[in-house]
Amino acid sequence: MSEAKLLETFPNPAPQRDFVIAHTHHEFTSVCPMTGHPDFATITLRYTPEKTCVELKSLKLYFHAFRNQGIFFEAVTNKICDDLGAALLPRRLEIVSEWKARGGFTSVVTAVWTPKAKPARKRAR
């Protein structure tokens, strides 16, 4: 099953207003595809909802689905951004992943999702 199928939503209680929702998950884990060692991160999701908001238990289960996956920091951050963007279709969405030190390095990866602009129609002459 795709991790994205775990995400559930509920109606935005104030669709007439721009407001920001921020959720931080402090126990995100995945596996380095090169070494097989675990990677630990804090993932922060910030978004301005359009019609729907993400349900937190489903978000937790979605994040936990990455625990045994071999995936690079950059790839997992962008996958989370794409999956949540597709599930929510928000006005704006940002994912920040802050990775714990390994090998003397800490890493921060930020991915931003914005709605795709609709293609302009060609005018008939």
Question: Could you name the key traits of this structure?
Answer:
alpha+beta, two-stranded antiparallel sheet, single chain, GTP Cyclohydrolase I, domain 2, 4-stranded antiparallel beta sheet, 125 residues, 2 helices
Structural class: alpha+beta
Give the C-alpha Rg: 16 Å
Q: What does the largest sheet look like?
A: 4 strands, antiparallel
Number of helices: 2
SSE succession: EEEEHHEE
CATH homologous superfamily, by name? GTP cyclohydrolase I, C-terminal domain/NADPH-dependent 7-cyano-7-deazaguanine reductase, N-terminal domain
Taken together, the total number of domains comes to 1
CATH topology (level 3) name = GTP Cyclohydrolase I, domain 2
CATH architecture classification name: 2-Layer Sandwich
CATH hierarchy class name: Alpha Beta
What does the average pLDDT come to? 93
**Contiguous uncertain segments of 5+ residues:** none
The number of distinct β-strands equals: 6
Distance between the termini: 49 Å
Strand content: 35-45%
Q: How are the strands of the largest sheet arranged?
A: 2-3-5-6
Give a written overview of the molecule:
- The protein is an alpha+beta fold.
- It has a single domain (3-113), classed as GTP Cyclohydrolase I, domain 2, CATH 3.30.1130.10.
- The protein is built from 2 helices and 6 strands; from the N terminus they run ββββααββ.
- It has helices at residues 56-64, 73-88, and strands at residues 9-11, 21-31, 38-48, 52-54, 92-102, 105-113.
- The protein has a 4-stranded antiparallel beta sheet, with helices on one face. Strands 1-4 form a two-stranded antiparallel ribbon.
- β2 (21-31) and β3 (38-48) form a beta hairpin.
- The longest helix is centred in the middle third of the chain and has 16 residues, at 73-88.
- The protein is globular and about 55 Å long.
- The N and C termini lie far apart (49 Å).
